Amino acid sequence: MANARESELHYPLGETLPQAGEALDLAPGLRWVRMGLPFALDHINLWLLRDRIDGVDGWTIVDCGIASDATRDNWETVFASRLDGLPVLRVMATHFHPDHLGLAHWLTERWACRLWMSATDFNLARLASSSTVGMGGASAAAFFGSHGLTDEDSLQKIRERADYYPKMVPVVPTAFRRLMDGMAVDIGGRTWRCIAGYGHAPEHISLFCEAGKLLISGDMVLPRISTNVSVVDVEPEADPLNLYLQSLTRYLDLPAATLVLPSHGKPFTGLHQRIDQLQAHHDDRFAEVMAACRTAPTHAAGLLPVLFKRKLDLHQTTFAMGESIAHLNALWLKGALTRELGADGVYRFSAA
């Protein structure tokens, strides 16, 4: 959902964006790459960090883009013109989602280097690349059906999306190096601290550099939109939203002047303000959900017009369903709502 309080944030680069196949210098040893995506959210930000490993000078790539010819071509243009003649020494992924991990196998093969990421997300990616997780296939359709999505055309399209993840992440590297919360990683003589976040992905890793006051936030903190936090079929009673909101507090001790490097949108300052905005946003959504459930027993599909005021395409509807269920589960699991399974096989929630 768009950020109505965006004016509280500051964008140091204004409207400047790197064009496809370019890398924009943000600070010494830090370059910003931007790749296209075939969704309404039409881009992802990727980062180049100057590095030195085992006595060899080069670069670390943070996040990869989806597996597509266009993304590969843009990377090749970057390699030819913006690596200063140096190799890529490692690839880091903040989490397992396709826009972040899709080309990890190609990049690590291309440069004979290692993938670094959390173990939880690495192993889930290995599973998902051979099937799917959450947003496509028969299990996902049945799960969304149990939460009130009854439009047969939409359900059939979800069933047919069993290749949703494998199409964008066809292969995951067979080996990796584990990133963990609190771990200090030396990248080019600068220390970057890993901050694990939960809810958006199982074990998302952001990277903070105290010396440069830089935060590669991945998808945990975005300036213009609220991060998607979904319940999916593989963990139907999960409470990812409370995990996400608890994770946001981990960033509150970072300096106010921190430059946030998000995966979507533009680099910004105002981290503490943005966390406050995100917490307030979900407080408002919780209030809307409670009001609806006080009126009548309500299922997740019935909440879509309440939580999302715009028209949704199928891709957006799957994420919206996951997020609607996340709000319901959070309130149900803390006892504010009760849940009943109807004779029609649909879960409905009421105020306790």
From TrEMBL:
SMART domains: Lactamase_B
Any Pfam family hit: B_lactamase-like_C
Domain Metallo-beta-lactamase: 43-264
Organism domain of life: Bacteria
Residues forming coiled coils: none
Protein name (Swiss-Prot/TrEMBL): MBL fold metallo-hydrolase
